Amino acid sequence: MSFSINDGSWYLVSNLDEATSYELFDAVVRGQIRREQVFRDNWRTLSAQVRFRDDALQLKVSRARNNRRWERLLTRFRGSDAVRSFRHLERMSSMGFSAPEPVLAGEQRRAGFVTDSFVCYHYVDGRPAGPEDVPAVLEALRKLHRQGYLRTDAQIANFLIAGDSVVFIDFRLKKPWFLPALQKARELDRFLRSCPDARDALTEKEVSSRWLRVARWLEDLSFGIRRLKRRFREPRKTRNS
């Protein structure tokens, strides 16, 4: 069971004892934690496998979210992305799904707004899901939908296979309130776009679903609008270069 710590401008949630929590926190914020493998390190995100004592952990810092002005404004009324990720990982476990075990998350506030945050969770030694794993991944996604949740960013790349388990990674839980059947169908359509072979694993009910057809049309429209926006941006970049 996790507990929380308020320490000056930092708020921590942890599954460690208090002394160990502070030790890990200090190593992260001082940049003294050993990085064993860096997956991404840019203006948007720091994602790295790190070593703390004898444990392999995943460290994630959402830099873009911490720096966007409108996202900072939202944190006046809700927790940081890091703390919410910690809670989502806990919730997944409580619902019987496989997901990384959260270790520590922290958020720093100034004048009530989050300005910095991070989350650490146990590194999962699994392999990326492939086409041969589609039936199991689809069933895990269906099970989540039946419990009333979306996972967001439902690409096949965001699932790992560890033993016989389908592990959810890089997700945020969302409970759809408006037209939940359509929102679940849109998430399913996005998964199918990331792995077209998955269409062969759909049930007859899913193949004939009106919601899935509407979702496909909406996703086509969404992607078309994004392409148009990129085309309009390109001439501006050319003129400014």
UniProtKB/TrEMBL annotation:
<protein>
    <recommendedName>
        <fullName>Lipopolysaccharide kinase (Kdo/WaaP) family protein</fullName>
    </recommendedName>
</protein>
<dbReference type="InterPro" id="IPR011009">
    <property type="entry name" value="Kinase-like_dom_sf"/>
</dbReference>
